[in-house]
Every structure is written in C-alpha cells, then in structure tokens.
C-alpha cells in the first residue's frame, strides 16, 4: 500500500460532482502515476475542466476520494497545492499590463519562492522555451504560441510535481499547437513531472502518443 501511494500522483475513486445543480461527474475512477503523461479527452461539456478545477481546487465541492501524491486533497493546504501543481489554460491567462517577467514572477511570489530563485529559474526556463530576451516585453507583443510558452514557464516555476493543461493548444494553429505540445512533452520528461493534458485533437494524440482517458456521461474510461 505504502509503495503504491508513493508512486501515484493522482488517485480518484468514486468521484461525484455537480455544476449549477446538474451532475457532471458520476462515479469517476482515475489514476495518474508520478512522471506519467496522459490525455483527457471528451465532448464539449463532458466535465473535463470540472475535473481539472477540482484537482487544483478552483472548485471544492465533491463526493468521493481524490488523492494527490498519496495525500487526501482536502488535507493539502492551498499554498502547498500551488507549489505541487502547475496549470496551463487554453486562453494563456497572462496579465496584459505586466511584462513577461512580471507575469512569471507573480507565480513565484504566490508559491513563496525567494526573489533570487524566481529570477534564476525564470531566466533559465525562458531560455529553455526559446524566449531569451523577451522578459521585458508585454503579452500583446508576443504571438499566441509565444504567450503560451510564457504561461508554461509560469506554470513550471518552482518545479511542480504535476502539470495540468486544459486545452493548452486550443487557441493555436495546428503547426504551433504541435510545437507547443512537443515542448510540453519534452519538459515533462526533463523534469520528471506528471502531466495531464485535455485535448480534442486526435492529430496531436497521434503525433505524441500516450494514455488517453475518455470522458463521457460523467465517467472516464482508460482507452
Ligand atoms: N459555473 C458553472 N455553473 C453552471 N454549470 C457549469 C459551470 N461550469 C460548468 N458548468 C457545466 O458543467 C458541465 C461540464 O463543464 P466543463 O467545463 O467541465 O466541460 P468540458 O468537458 O471541459 O467542456 P469543453 O470541452 O467545452 O471545455 C457543462 O454542462 C457546463 O455547462
């Protein structure tokens, strides 16, 4: 039992959740191992974002069991969860009035990282995603793919154990989408983190094959 706990990043058993009074997740069972990369796929409105929001606790009402890194999600303090989990969204969610560096550094502040470490890691990661020299630009000066790379750096600051990506390539053309997912895949391997990517794109799944969890009628099935 102890060994299983140590190697599992996310364990969900019998999860039920509602949105606006309607049942969205109904007896969901799901598992992601440490360092594993997997996709979550399903029709629009099937509950993929709801599942992710429960994991990073933007939503907190649920029944059943959710464990992250062998601990009950409810027992993990919010500040600790923010350090454990990085999140990337379809719409990038960068603050327009702040520079690339300021956007990234804010995430470091939230995670309680010292300023020196924030700068060091941010600059290293910006180099890793080929955005050297863009730290003082504003989001509007960057392309969609570049903005998503900034959002990836922001999510990876502080080396989270788990990255959740909710349609991270949904706003990008197919070539840029493939580049961004390829980059995420490389970073996931380099950092040894677990990663769950919500996508609608069979093209991307074919290009970067991994386990696919299919969500339908409130349940998820491993395919
Ligand atoms: N704040 C909310 N209030 C009421 N209903 C909601 C709310 N958020 C989501 N829902 C409903 O919950 C269901 C699941 O939504 P969710 O966003 O999780 O689906 P999804 O699979 O991520 O969809 P998409 O692929 O379109 O992003 C939908 O029927 C949606 O309308």
Automatic annotation (TrEMBL):
The keyword Aminoacyl-tRNA synthetase does not apply. SMART domains: AAA. PROSITE patterns: ABC_TRANSPORTER_1 (PS00211), ABC_TRANSPORTER_2 (PS50893). One of its GO terms (cellular component) is plasma membrane. Signal peptide: none annotated. Residues 10-223 form the ABC transporter domain. InterPro entries: AAA+_ATPase, ABC_transporter-like_ATP-bd, ABC_transporter-like_CS, MacB-like_ATP-bd, MetN_ABC_transporter-like, P-loop_NTPase. GO terms for molecular function: ATP binding; ATP hydrolysis activity. It is found in: Cell membrane. SUPFAM superfamilies: P-loop containing nucleoside triphosphate hydrolases. CDD domains: ABC_MJ0796_LolCDE_FtsE (cd03255). It is a peripheral membrane protein. Keywords: ATP-binding, Cell membrane, Membrane, Nucleotide-binding, Transport. Belongs to the ABC transporter superfamily. This is ABC transporter ATP-binding protein.
């Amino acid at each position: 039992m102890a060994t299983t706990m140590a190697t599992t990043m996310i364990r969900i058993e019998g999860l039920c959740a509602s949105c606006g009074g309607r049942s969205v997740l109904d007896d969901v069972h799901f598992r992601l191992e440490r360092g594993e990369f997997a996709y979550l796929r399903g029709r629009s409105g099937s509950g993929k974002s709801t599942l992710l929001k429960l994991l990073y606790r933007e939503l907190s009402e649920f029944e059943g069991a959710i464990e992250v890194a062998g601990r009950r999600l409810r027992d993990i303090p919010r500040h600790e969860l923010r350090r454990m989990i990085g999140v990337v969204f379809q719409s990038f969610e960068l603050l327009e009035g702040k520079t690339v560096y300021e956007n990234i550094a804010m995430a470091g502040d939230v995670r309680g990282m010292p300023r020196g470490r924030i700068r060091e890691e941010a600059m290293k990661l910006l180099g890793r995603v080929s955005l050297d020299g863009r730290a003082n630009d504003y989001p509007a000066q960057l392309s969609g793919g570049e903005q998503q790379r900034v959002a990836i750096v922001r999510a990876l600051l502080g080396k989270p154990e788990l990255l959740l990506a909710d349609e991270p390539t949904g706003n990008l053309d197919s070539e840029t989408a493939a580049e961004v997912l390829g980059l995420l895949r490389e970073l996931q391997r380099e950092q040894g983190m677990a990663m769950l990517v919500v996508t609608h794109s069979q093209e991307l799944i074919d290009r970067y094959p991994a386990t696919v969890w299919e969500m339908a009628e409130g349940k998820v099935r491993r395919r």
